[in-house]
Structures are given as structure tokens and as C-alpha cells.
Amino acid sequence: TCPAKEIKDIEALITVxxxxxxxxxxxxxxxxxxxxxxxxxxxxIDGKYVDFDVLPILEDGRVLVPMRKIFEKLGAVIEWxxxxxxxxxxxxxxxxxxxxxxxxxxxxxxxxxxDVPAKVVDGRTLVxxxxxxxxxxxxxxxxxxxxLVIIKTAE
Length: 155
What we know:
About 15% of the residues lie in helices and about 45% in strands. Strand 3 (about 40-45) and strand 4 form a beta hairpin. Mean pLDDT is about 80; it is low at about 1-40. The chain is mainly beta. The strands form four sheets. The protein has a five-stranded antiparallel β-sheet with strand order 7-8-9-10-11, covered by helices on one side. A four-stranded mixed β-sheet has the order 4-3-15-14, covered by helices on one side. The chain contains three helices and 15 strands. It is globular and about 40 Å long.
């Protein structure tokens, strides 16, 4: 239950709950509950929101997002090797290789440890957004209050 009389700013409550469906009193008819579906984690690139067909997730303190969409939005060309469950993304001189479930990725041939490996969710491959963005040379920040990943590609 949600103590409706103590809630002053329902948007703040929804933001804190980040991604879950919550039930709140509507303030007009205290006998009915209103369902509020919270968006969850959002991503912006240079101030523009990115829409995903599978929502980003938070796992062990890391945000994972659908691979194809984020690579394409960041200007990388991707190749998927089904037989090895490996994705290779190329942008300019940078080549990133990730294998599903593997905690080691490669950037220009150098092995780098991942805190969270790429994984499949609802038929989509999700990758750690900070690792991907920083490997391509972009600045990444996290606004925990608003559950927002902010990527800046230009200065």
C-alpha cells in the first residue's frame, strides 16, 4: 500500500520506483486505485531520447540496452555471428567485439573485463551501455534520480 496522504509529488515517487508499476490513490476518489506505469531507465544521446523495443535493464549496477539500436545510434556498423553468439561493432578505427555471456570484450584486439556481460532478453541482445559508449570515445553519465543515461558525442 501507498500512504497517499503523505505523497506530495507523485512524479518524484514514480521516478524513485523507476520501472515498476505502482498503485496510488488518485486523490479524487479514495476508494479507487490508479495504476501508473513507470517508463524505467531512459537513454539520451546529445539530448535526444532513444526509443528501444526492449527496455534497458539495470544489472549489478550496470545499464544494459539493446545492442543494434545503441550501436546504430552511435554511428557504428554491426555484424552478428550467430554460430559464436558474437557481435562486432566498427566505427572508424575502433572495433568492439562482445560475446553473449562472456565477461571479456575486445576493443581493437585488446581484452577488457566487463562487470556485466552481454545477454539476451526477449530475443534481443543487451550490452553494457557505458562500456560501449566509452569504447567509442563518448562521455557517459548517470542521473540516478531520473534513471537516465546521458551520452554526449560532441563537446
